[in-house]
Amino acid sequence: MHHISTSKDIEKFGRCDLYHGKWVHDPAGPLYSNNSCPVLSQMQNCQGNGRPDKDYENYRWKPTKCQLHRFDQEKFLKLMTGKTLAFIGDSVARNQMESLLCMLWQAIPVNRGNKRMQRYYFRSTSTTIIRIWSSWLVHKTTEKFDFAPEGVDKLHLDAPDETFMDVIPTIDVLVLSSGHWFAKKSVYILNNKIVGGQLWWPDNSRKKIIDSTEAFEISVATIMSSLVTNPDYSGLTVVRSYSPDHYEGGAWNTGGSCTGKVKPATDGELVESRFTNTMHDKQVLGFNRGIKKKTNKSRVAFMDITKPFSYRHDGHPGPYRSPDPNKITKRSEDGRPPPQDCLHWCMPGPIDTWNEFLMETIRRDFEAHKS
Question: Which candidate, 28, 48, 192, 274, has a CA 20 to 30 Å from the CA of 283?
């Protein structure tokens, strides 16, 4: 798999590569169950939605050259004493935040959230975990713009999404999640000019300057440069790399499927997704471009989960995305798959590993920057 590597200076405190390794069977299983966690979205509650197999919960990621410790609730909260952790982005950010909350739930957080911001506060260590929705991380409007009509989403790729910029100074660790919305219908604007669109374009007489993957790269560069030049922000920004989906034989809306996958793929079974690889590489490019502008005391880390998670075609809800007892879970006579979610991750499940990566990333960073 060809992957552009992130620049070495980012991980100068990282003693070894967490993201090179393999999935090993671990009978110890997960740290919570689907019915022990009240904040788990029903769509990710695969066991509660009738998924018959359970072994996908029993794999651990084992890096080749270093230790990835099991998640430890007490150590995590101690590490984050008096600090605020924010997940900003799309529904995959929500998926990761819920996984973290489920692993911390015994510490009994208080919900202090509102519509704009989900917020959980742990009294024992004065730790706050928040989530702010931002589908693209850049400024979005639906007003008419030049030849793009009112209604369709317009992305100003060179302006950050202002909905969260005011809370940035209060955040100690920021986890960004984006990419999947670039497959949705939208218009791309750069320097106040329409430069492209996804599932939207008036006619072939106009030339598109950029496609959706290039728009993604620009958006990542925009958000990173706005964070590393914000004079009031001194936190750690963790960019979680593009989360691979596993629709086979079609896309999410054209009958793609992950039905019947019950364990991680072997090297021989791994289906390369050129689109996923491109999105990953564009994200790395945007990240590296954005952080070159750094003027403040903040730090950055790239959490490179794309390759390890390309093996986990077994970790998605697939057809088990609702508790409806009459849902279709098997292929029809003519081989068509039932409606599927092969993008989000079952909970408990592989996504819990992201928070082990996150804890290790935070630990390394805090050790390297002891004030």
Answer: 192
- Percent of all residues in the chain with a pLDDT value above 90, rounded to a whole number: 86
Q: H or E element: which one contains 118?
A: strand 117-122
The pLDDT value recorded for residue 250 is 84
Evaluate the CA torsion angle 99, 243, 54, 361 in order and state its sign: negative
- Pair type for strands 59-63 and 21-25: antiparallel
Rounded Cα distance, 61 and 26, in Å: 9
Strand partners, 139: 156
Could you give the residue numbers annotated as active site?
91, 341, 344
Question: Where do we find the tokens 């660790």?
Answer: 173
Residue 74 tokens read as 């007490």
d(CA 120, CA 83) in angstroms, rounded, equals 12
Query: Domains in the chain, start-ordered, CATH in brackets?
Result: 19-133+169-178+217-322+350-363 (3.40.50)
**pTM for the whole thing?**
0.94
What φ, ψ does residue 174 adopt, rounded to 5°? -120, 125
